[in-house]
Amino acid sequence: MKLARNAELETVFVNSIREAMELPRTGLHRSSLFPCARKGKAIQVLKIKLREDEALFYAQGRSVHAFVIGDRFQPVEESLEKDGILDTPDGWTVVDGQRVPVEFKATRLSSRDFLDKVHQSLSSYRGAVADYLWQLLDHCLFAGTETGVLAVLFFMGDYGAKRKWCPDCKARVTWGQCKGCGWEGKRTELRTYTVTFDKRDFGQRWQEFETRRDLYLGTDDPLMVPPTPNWMCATCRPGEAIRCQWFGKKVA
Ligand code: SF4
Ligand SMILES: [Zn+2]
User: Which residue from 228, 243, 249, 250 has its CB within 8 A of the most atoms of ligand 1, so it is best to mutate?
Assistant: First the structure.
């Protein structure tokens, strides 16, 4: 047998993944305004392209889309438009006879930290979970539905395969199983949530869309666009390029 790394093919593959992951940037897209319009402006003005590791990171999340095909989930690149802003849900499915948008996520967060039921208001959520929910709300806003579906692939499940001690009863875990209480760890997990949003959330969000759109379109200087500090500031390359004061900061 012979085995050798093929650097030439690696480049070909990585480049085609990169190409596939670059978003079509014609028109004003939702992602230019949220989570941070300043970041969107910096990407537009400085023409910041995805780095190899970023493209691969996004590909990892998108790869699962291809497998969930069938009449319950349709991954289609269908762009919705509302007052000059474009939005593209990951796909569509049917809930109670209604066609609703789907937001697909892939994450290294533990499924143990993700709630199965939500009773609080949307604005009380922070971090990645809030980001997922707001993104889904936006798809619903553009699609004109109150309900949408959030599907989350937890790459690491609940980190069950890595645990030594049971998270429930603290007994020793062997091969991902607890002999004490029967807890079974999950190596990888897919969870799907039906989410129905409050009417008032839509109204407030749309106002925010209009405000950000006007600020975004009103200048060519990213630093003139008010920042929206968020959990991605710590690694925000566009923010770094324009010396945004929030770059590198940890924001919850
Ligand atoms: S560092 Fe944060 S606030 Fe600054 S542009 Fe990036 S995302 Fe926006
Ligand atoms: Zn246990």
Answer: 228
How many distinct structural domains can be found in the chain?
1
For residue 115, the enclosing domain spans: 24-157+186-241
The residue nearest atom 6 of ligand 1, judged by CA position, is 239
Q: What is the dihedral of CA 170, 113, 162, 105, to 10 degrees?
A: 160
Whole-number percent of the chain with pLDDT over 90: 45
Ligand 1 atom nearest residue 35's Cα:
7
Query: How many CB atoms are closer than 10 A to CB 102?
Result: 23
User: Nearest ligand, CA of residue 250?
Assistant: 1
Please determine, for residue 30, whether its predicted confidence score (pLDDT) is greater than 90.
yes
pLDDT band at 86 (very low <50, low <70, confident <90, very high): very high
33 domain-assigned = yes
Q: Could you give the strand order of the β-sheet that contains 189-196, starting from the edge strand earlier in sequence?
A: 91-95, 98-107, 147-154, 189-196
Q: Which ligand is nearest to the CA of 248?
A: 1
Instruction: Tell whether 170 is covered by a domain.
Output: no
Mean pLDDT, rounded, for 41-70:
81
Domain annotation covers residue 174: no
CATH number at residue 108: 3.90.320
3-state secondary structure (DSSP) of residue 1:
coil
In a domain, 30, yes or no: yes
Dihedral angle of Cα 118, 120, 124, 129, to the nearest 10 degrees: 0
Amino acid found at 145: T
